Amino acid sequence: MYWEDFRSLISKLERDGEYKFCLLITIGVFTGLRIGDLLQLRYNQFENTDILTIQEKKTKKTRRIKINQDLRTILERIKTKIGEVDTSQYIFINKYGTKPIDKSYVNVKLKEIIKRYNIPVEGNISSHLFRKTLGNRVLRLNNYSNEAVILLMDLFGHSSPSITRKYLGIREREILDVYDSLRL
Question: Are 52 and 36 a contacting pair, CB within 8 Å?
Answer without folding.
Answer: no
